[in-house]
Amino acid sequence: KKIGVVIVAAGSGNRFGDPIPKQYHTLGGKTLLGHCIECFARHTSPELVQVVYNPAHQNWYDGAIAALGADITTLPAPIGGGVTRQQSVLNGLRALSARKPDIVLIHDAARPGISDDVITRVIKALETHAGAIPTLPVADTIKQTSRDGVITKTIPRDTLQRAQTPQGFVFETILAAHEQFEGQEFTDDAALLEELGLDVMCVEGTSANDKITKRDDFDRAHDWIDSTNK
Ligand code: CTP
Ligand code: MG
After folding, report:
1. How far is the centre of ligand 1, averaged over its atoms, from the C-alpha of 14 (Å)?
2. Which of 125, 153, 196, 208 is the most exposed place for a label (fewest CB within 10 A)?
3. Considering its fold, how many domains does the chain have in total?
4. Which bound ligand lies closest to the C-alpha atom of 12?
């Protein structure tokens, strides 16, 4: 099967709060985006890895690519993203469609701790499902509250999972879903298939693959890179 990859890196990292967007910060000499590109390129060929970026970040993007391994020579030109993550994903899927992948893995550049094992589990689950995503069980007790902060309900924790990426799909199915729901608000790609009543399978994620959202998350990832390089 031909595996396409969309890496979305067009965000501005407002919550991270640095002039340089988080995807262009470096861990162990490579940017967050660079770590993602290298990991996915190992599971398919680089020409099937489509990066979505903000053209205003061109210099940072070029710097990220310059630090990649010498084997990543045939990466396609990045495509411009949109105002929302969802629009950025759709732009990436449209760009990829000319290369006719059978399945596609959609990944956040803000998850540099992605591993071969997680990618393999997602691909495997796609043999029997239209969609598959890595998740982790929720460790804390979750409270539903009213707007003023008073608890209205405790949600049974064993029914909850935290969604990660890469989220994998049959290519034509997720492209059609994104076209259909263009402009509507969804926080991840699996939600579009759920809306269509299609089964999305959860496979085991890892804590290293948690998203870098704030500065603290980045500092923790630094410790993790340091410990794996020892
Ligand atoms: N993303 C994107 N296009 C957007 C918004 C987000 O490609 N219009 C990407 C980000 O670059 C990131 C991933 O989607 O890799 C997850 O988004 P998030 O963690 O929210 O990143 P940002 O939107 O950049 O951060 P913030 O929400 O704090 O501004
Ligand atoms: Mg965002």
Report:
1. 9
2. 153
3. 1
4. 1
Quickly state the pLDDT bin for 229 (edges 50, 70, 90).
low
Distances, alpha carbon 75 to alpha carbons 110, 125, 134, in Å? 19, 26, 25
Q: Which ligand 1 atom is the nearest neighbour of the CA of 15?
A: 28
Nearest to 47 by CA among 35, 60, 37, 34: 37
Q: Which ligand is nearest to the CA of 21?
A: 1
- Whether 142 maps to a domain, the answer reads no
Residue 147 lies in a domain: no
d(CA 42, CA 111): 16
Q: Is 185 within a domain?
A: yes
Atom of ligand 1 nearest to the CA of 109: 15
What does the alpha-carbon distance between residue 18 and residue 36 come to, in Å, rounded to a whole number?
21
Q: Which domain holds residue 120?
A: 3-134+162-229
Q: What is the mean pLDDT of residues 3-31?
A: 97
Atom of ligand 1 nearest to the CA of 84: 8
Q: In the structure, which protein residues have their CB atom closer than 6 angstroms to any atom of ligand 1?
A: 8-16, 23, 52, 81-85, 88, 108-110, 211, 213
